[in-house]
Records
---
Amino acid sequence: MSVFYRRGLLVHPEEFDEALIGQMCQAGLNVLGLHPAGGKAAHDSLETAIRLHAMPASRARIDMARDRNISVEYEAHALRWLVPRSLFGMVPDWFRMNERGYRIPDFHLCVSNPDALMYLETRAEALARQLWTGAHRWSFWPDDVQGMGCCCPECRKLSLSDQALILTNAVQRGIRRADPLGCTGFLAYQDTLDTPKKVRPEDGVFLEFAPIRRDHHRPLSDEHCDQNAREIRSVPQLLSFFGRQGAQAVDYWMDNSLFSHWQKPPQPFHLDTEVLKRDAEFYDSLGFESVTSFGCFLGQDYRERYGEPPIGDFGACLQSLPG
Ligand SMILES: [Zn+2]
């Protein structure tokens, strides 16, 4: 029995090739997230992805995937690209205030500044037009950093999850102008695992849960694992808040970039199917409709070194739960 109607992998755009489409079809996977590398240079990797997207070969691959019922969707830490730091000299109040009271153009925005949010909205609209794939799910996430919310007197009243939801709502408004059916992921991850309290999601915002600080070799539901208990503490509440419809787990079972410590060359990869099976049961029991994993560092250079990655095993575990 197939329990999740969406099952997929997130890979770096440069890893998206015809071989991957074939592997995904054989594995029964129907979602391909294109994920420019995160971290503090995520704006640069997004810029590279935009250039790659415009190439005829990329467009042909996206069409080929879609013809084979694979939905191709961008999942990127986009904020610093959407609101470039070069604007700081003109509009310093758009940028966050740090704990010492200074406006600083490193990451994030002042989410209490309406002009900054309007600009973000306009840029998200333009980015969605540039990165069109025919899918209606978009993830233009906040920056991939921790502890960098805005500390101005207004934003100080908001949790980091509330601040992130204000950003996501602005992105969603922009996306809806480019794509009337468009929906945007709110990323519950690192600083934003707790449920927002003061802000409500716009229509079309769905939950994405990415437990990066979990123990990757123990099941999420393992009650004796404090690390995993901490990561999942708010998941039922998050699902109630955002709704189960479209809710997506973005986990790490296949993330060979993480297991290679984000350094090339890729390391040999072993899929922990026992943990994956238990986690799939866990996500199913909570009502997630969509289950994906990062799957970076398993592309052509991996295949040349080590042979085929276990994408088939991954797909099989998502399609049949024990019992
Ligand atoms: Zn602020």
Note: The radius of gyration is 19 Å.
---
Amino acid sequence: MDIFEVKTDKRAFIDLLLQADEQEDMIMRYLDRGTMYALAENDVKAVCVVTDEGNSVLEIKNIAVRTEFRRMGYGKKLVGFVEKKYKGLYNVLKVGTGDSELTIPFYEKCGFKETYRVKNFFVDNYDHPIFECGKQLIDMVYLEKAI
Ligand SMILES: CC(C)(COP(=O)(O)OP(=O)(O)OC[C@H]1O[C@@H](n2cnc3c(N)ncnc32)[C@H](O)[C@@H]1OP(=O)(O)O)[C@@H](O)C(=O)NCCC(=O)NCCS
């Protein structure tokens, strides 16, 4: 297994990025300024994008594992890689997600704790309603962990 930085043509992974954030123009808000990592075992199985948010805060803007390889530990390995790589350079690793049973338990298992919510984020920023597990996502839930 190898995790490496994707320095050129980050858009080649748009299909995977869209699984975590289904509106392309929202991805474009952070893709160029973000640092992308890919996890490969033979081929690429997962990607993530992190951004410098100032004040010693690093944010995971996007993390996605190919559907058929979920629940096999790849997501947690990527988060662990980011933590190790940026330890000492940032104090806090942060992530924002919808109030979804597909994502919040994952981040909690990775050691994140909820810190605050941005009301109506998904309604105000996306051009269509976003549903996960039959539930509309409304607020952005932020979770953080010290690194
Ligand atoms: C969320 C996502 C990145 C998780 O990656 P993953 O590789 O499937 O997760 P892992 O196998 O590394 O799981 C790590 C831990 O979280 C738990 N977990 C993962 N998904 C879970 C879920 N939906 N419900 C409960 N627990 C979950 C695992 O059981 C595991 O627990 P353990 O440490 O006790 O073994 C992946 O499901 C995904 O790509 N989803 C679609 C894109 C997406 O929604 N991205 C996040 C946008 S905010």
Note: The first strand starts at residue 2 and ends at 6.
